[in-house]
Design brief:
two-stranded antiparallel ribbon, seven-stranded mixed beta sheet, about 25% strand, about 230 residues, Spore Coat Polysaccharide Biosynthesis Protein SpsA, Chain A, alpha/beta, globular
Length: about 230
């Protein structure tokens, strides 16, 4: 039976403490300009357009003054850690301090997935709100998948049951915090932490444009998509 309660709220948590070493930028990639404004601002605009989101918390590194210099309708907390898991766990504790309940939902989203849309966020909420576990946006794998050994193909894997994990990932605050504390710092996403404690998150179809800006070429692609939407 779902532990959903009528007045459950939805919070957004945006880890924003990474440096993005693979992006080739001189500073944190989330603050690099894309289509006229810092990347993270596009991300935050999508969440601001979702009326059901009660509050958005951005987790930044100690000494990061970006949000003191740039207005955004968010709360910034300087509690970022060395890993994503630590930053998210710290952010969940901060949400509790701000009045969130352990049974409230949190949607954790990568700052660098700046092409997320309000419609996709709403679709995730609709799909997960009555689910016992929660879930994540993901995309069915369409490419052929190989494993390698010494730089040569060792095997071809079936792609039938393979998905590319995206964000947001939506879980109850209390349960996710428990999962992260048990799973440790090595998990790379929230669904992985939930899986580690025996949960099976719901897969909700996302879209190919909801990619994470990671490499230098990704900036040009994200800018082209954003400019196309502006037109």
């Amino acid at each position: 039976m779902s532990d959903n309660i009528p007045n459950t709220r939805f919070f957004a948590l945006i880890p924003c403490a990474g440096h993005g070493s693979r992006a080739g930028t001189s500073g944190p990639k989330q603050y690099e300009p894309i289509a006229g404004k810092p990347m993270v601002m596009h991300t935050l605009a999508a969440f601001a357009a979702v009326r059901r989101i009660a509050k958005t918390l951005v987790v930044v590194a100690q000494g990061d003054g970006f949000f003191s210099r740039n207005f955004a309708p968010v709360t910034a907390a300087s509690c970022g850690g060395e890993t994503r898991a630590v930053s998210v766990a710290n952010g969940l504790h901060e949400l509790r301090k701000l009045g969130a309940d352990s049974r409230d939902w949190v949607l954790v989203h990568d700052a660098a997935r700046c092409l997320i849309t309000p419609e996709q966020i709403d679709a995730l909420i609709d799909a997960c709100v009555d689910d016992d576990v929660g879930g994540l946006l993901a995309q069915k794998l369409t490419d052929t998948l190989k494993t390698d050994k010494g730089g040569r193909v060792e095997a071809t894997l079936s792609r039938d049951d393979k998905w590319l994990a995206q964000t947001p990932q939506m879980f109850r605050i209390g349960r996710l915090l428990e999962a992260l504390e048990q799973a440790g710092d090595d998990v790379t996403d929230e669904a992985g932490a939930m899986e580690a404690i025996g949960q099976r998150p719901l897969l909700v179809a996302g879209g190919s444009q909801n990619f994470k800006v990671t490499y230098p070429d990704d900036f040009a692609l994200a800018e082209a998509v954003l400019k196309g939407r502006q037109r």
